[in-house]
Amino acid sequence: MDAQPEKEIVFHTRGVTKIYDTGEVKVHALAGIDLELYSGELAVLLGPSGSGKSTLLNILGGLDRPTAGDVWFRDHELSRMSDRELTRFRRDYVGFVFQFYNLVPSLSARENVALVTDIARDPMRPEEALDLVGLGHRMNHFPAEMSGGEQQRVAIARAIAKRPEILLCDEPTGALDIKTGTTVLEALNTINEQFGTTTAVITHNAAIRKMAHRVIRFLDGKISDVTVNETRIAPHEIEW
């Protein structure tokens, strides 16, 4: 697999902090994050629980706001957007994949994906999105009729069906076994390579770092290290 793609900055943050005030104690989730994410790259974010990975991902995706600091998506300053503008940003540019699939149990795979395509600007057909993740033959099945890995791939199809510029994935293999998790990573890798979708993947599994263009390590609300993989390996080559 190739190494780093051409560097066009999609996100950049400067001095981003996030403090959660629970009343009795203040939790410093982020303590001054400076970061760039580049067009077309697949970045893996590593670190222990509570190190700030998910908080940063939520801020990049417009689900949360920083306490201080600046967040830019291209020439749009997310940290100054109104709630309505952030909603539009999420709808038009961002696909989310979480550890738990959040599918509607009463809807088929095709219908779950159509929830997004019905409101997107330039969507692909639900059938096309499901084909991309290898589930064209399962599009009329319901979540209860699918394995965990299949449900996660439906969630990925739903996320990418609106052709997002950014795909943000929070522990997408966290609830899956090795074989199933590899299938999910193959789907994410396919999307990144075929569409050039900037992809950020949070994981506790250090082995997954080998498929990334860059590996960004978090510790105590800060970025502790960033490394570039000169040589990447495919998900099916990863030894977990």
Category by helix and strand content: alpha/beta
* % residues in beta strands: 25-35%
Number of strands: 10
Largest beta sheet: what is the strand line-up? 6-7-8-3-9-10
Number of alpha- plus pi-helical segments: 6
CATH superfamily: P-loop containing nucleotide triphosphate hydrolases
Average pLDDT confidence is 89
Radius of gyration: 17 Å
Largest sheet: 6 strands, mixed
- Assign a percent range to the helix content: 25-40%
CATH third-tier fold name: Rossmann fold
Keywords:
six-stranded mixed sheet; 6 helices; 240 residues; four-stranded antiparallel sheet; alpha/beta; Rossmann fold
Q: Which helices and strands, and how do they pair?
A:
Elements: E1 9-21, E2 26-38, E3 42-46, H1 53-60, E4 68-73, E5 76-77, H2 83-93, E6 94-97, H3 109-117, H4 126-132, H5 148-160, E7 166-170, H6 178-195, E8 198-203, E9 214-219, E10 222-228
Parallel strand pairs: 3-8, 3-9, 6-7, 7-8
Antiparallel strand pairs: 1-2, 1-4, 4-5, 9-10
Helix pairs in contact: 3-4, 3-5, 4-5, 5-6
